[in-house]
Amino acid sequence: MDMPTTPTPDASNDRPATQRSAVKPSRGPARGASTMAAIHRSLRAEIVEMRRNPGEPIVEKHIAEAFGVSRTPVREALQRLADEGLIEIFPQVGTFVARIPVNALPEAIVIRTSLEGTAVRYAAQRATGSQIAGLRANLLLQQETVEDGDLNAFHEADERFHALIAEIAGYPGLWSMAQQVKVQVDRYRRLTLPEPGRLTHVLAEHAAIVDAIADADPALAADRMAVHLDGLLTSIPQAQGANPFFFTGP
Question: Residue range 140-162: average pLDDT?
Answer without folding.
Answer: 95
